[in-house]
């Protein structure tokens, strides 16, 4: 995974008139985003981040080189990435969302159900959206009961979905 970038946040728009931005952190501890060093955008621009105070739906932050409201607003929607090697190692049975996306999903009988398209979290826990060729996507709770096996090395997840979830 060396050289792979992971999205750790996004710029939600300008905050104030002096170039601050409203930053959405995708880190488990939102303030951790400032500790990864320079963050880069998809187009390769790099920014040092200085966090301010918490604000509605994010954190006020200063980005190096951004000194006006117009410059901050022009960054709205930009995702911020860090090189995978700068992220801390996780304990066993914990995974970065980026490690799950693209993994093949099989049921306990070995039938391929699809691939993880995205990991969602709307506040009540993580959900795996599994895309299925020629069929509607399914959402699975990312719990040990429903997802007993995650094997990124083998490129697969084994699931035991609740009865009636998949038709």
Give a summary of the structure in a few sentences.
The protein folds into two domains: 5-86, RimM (Elongation Factor Tu (Ef-tu), domain 3, Beta Barrel), CATH 2.40.30; 97-159, PRC-barrel domain (SH3 type barrels). It is mainly β.
Keywords:
167 residues, mainly beta, Elongation Factor Tu (Ef-tu), domain 3, SH3 type barrels, 2 domains, 6-stranded mixed β-sheet, 5-stranded antiparallel β-sheet, 13 strands
pLDDT < 50 runs, ≥5 residues: none
CATH third-level topology of the largest domain: Elongation Factor Tu (Ef-tu), domain 3
What percent of residues adopt helix (DSSP H or I)? under 10%
Q: What is the mean predicted local confidence, pLDDT?
A: 91
Structural class: mainly beta
* Biggest sheet character: 6 strands, mixed
Number of helices: 2
What is the rounded Rg? 19 Å
CATH 2nd-level architecture of the largest domain: Beta Barrel
How many domains, as an integer? 2
Give the CATH superfamily of the largest domain: RimM
**Overall body shape:** elongated
Order of helices and strands: EEEEEEHEHEEEEEE
